[in-house]
What does this fold into?
Amino acid sequence: MPADEAWIMRRVRAVSEADQEAVRAILSEFFTIEKGRYSNARLTREWIAANEAHEKRKTAGAKGGLAKGAKIKEKIPSNAQAMPKQPEPEPEPDIRETNVSLARAGKRRSGKVPLQDDWVPDLVSAQSLMAELDLTREEMNYCYQQMKGHAHATDRRLANWDQGFGNWVRKAVKDGDVGPNSRSRRNRVNASAFDF
It folds into this structure.
């Protein structure tokens, strides 16, 4: 740090006299002035040690870790290197675990498709959902626009987008975004994407 007490006081925001006295005490206790800058002997030692350690890691990394491997070989007795290696038996696979994981992997991906740009919810299902939850056309359209934007942004994939839309609307009602108990009935989107 520069040996400029006013600059240091501004940097540490020591405004009151008590704060400034504390800063002065720390500077006099832990720092010395060398070549117009405050210096800390321990910090300098730690800085040098860290740089040396970094250089060693950098050099070893450039060699592909060979330096460490060479040291390990040096520690192995010469008669141990001459002994032939016994092949390690391969572990038997757990058939139950394999079948479960394959079944899950197949199930997870089958039938799920991304949302098509021209997709609209099934109107009959949407109208019954609208009546069941006492929603307005604007609220249904708001849910549609929100779900469609989210699906495209996250590359969401579902097997049944109509069911996904129903779940989305029910969650929006539960969270208070839409519905008679919502924080406020909002007309968020004027143009309806589908006609009820």
Remarks:
- Strands lie at 32-34, 37-39, 113-114, 157-158.
- Residues 68 and 92 are 33 Å apart (CA to CA).
- DSSP finds nine helices and four strands in the chain.
- The longest helix spans residues 41-62.
